[in-house]
Amino acid sequence: MFTGIIEELGRFEGSDGARYVFAARTVLVDARQGDSIAVNGCCLTLVEQGDGWWSTDVSDETLARTDLGALSPGEPVNLERPVRMSDRLGGHQVLGHVDTVGTIVSPAPGLVVRIPAHLMRYVVEKGSITVDGISLTAFNLTDETFEVAIIPHTAAVTTLGHKGAEAQVNIEVDIMAKHLERLMLPHLNAGTSPGHPVR
């Protein structure tokens, strides 16, 4: 699990088929083979590392659901290590499981992102949303867009300061909304309330 507080702006070095290589320093401190690292909000597994770099294997499923396949060598990426139980939760609970790729309509500081309309039901005014792995607060919702305010510090230390209109970003909606929907659907379909079994 992650918090959406980016630790380091790393760099995509390139790929050899499914093996992706990233330049990094901070997230490699005490990192070991098999550890998770979030790249632009996508949870990946460290399989090899060296001085200032690490590599991971990226599956076809991950490439289909994220913007990682569109990365160019030298492009910056947001990096975060998993949260420890002793850490402060500065953002919100982020799983690193990307739901969709969004499109920037208007770049930072008033970042507006378009996502598939069916996912907007998980986005609430002043609720949490993850954009390229960054925990942000959504507002000004429409049928297919939301806005987030990007402060200068966030723009300077993340990918959002480098991305303009029409650029792609990885989106993870709030996991709590998806769990609540899953729990409520059987009851809504049956016309009952949670905790009141059908008789």
Descriptive report:
- By secondary structure, this protein is α+β, with helices and mostly antiparallel strands.
- Helices cover 14% and strands 33% of the residues.
- It has a 7-stranded antiparallel β-sheet, with no helix packed on it.
- The longest helix has 16 residues, at 175-190.
- The N and C termini lie far apart (39 Å).
- The model has no long low-confidence stretch (mean pLDDT 92).
The run of helices and strands is EEEEEEHEEEEEEHEH
Structural class of the secondary elements?
alpha+beta
Radius of gyration: 18 Å
Euclidean distance between termini CA atoms: 39 Å
> What's the number of helices?
3
Strand elements, count: 13
Hey, roughly how much beta strand do the residues contain?
Answer: 25-35%
Query: Rough shape?
Result: globular
Order of strands side by side in the largest beta sheet? 4-3-7-1-2-6-5
Spans with pLDDT under 50 lasting ≥5 residues?
none
Largest sheet: 7 strands, antiparallel
Helix and strand arrangement:
Blueprint: E1 8-16, E2 19-23, E3 36-39, E4 42-45, E5 48-50, E6 53-57, H1 60-65, E7 76-80, E8 100-106, E9 110-114, E10 128-131, E11 134-137, E12 145-149, H2 152-157, E13 168-172, H3 175-190
Antiparallel strand pairs: 1-2, 1-7, 2-6, 3-4, 3-7, 5-6, 8-9, 8-13, 9-12, 10-11, 10-13
Give the structure's gist in a few sentences.
The chain is an alpha+beta fold and 199 residues long.
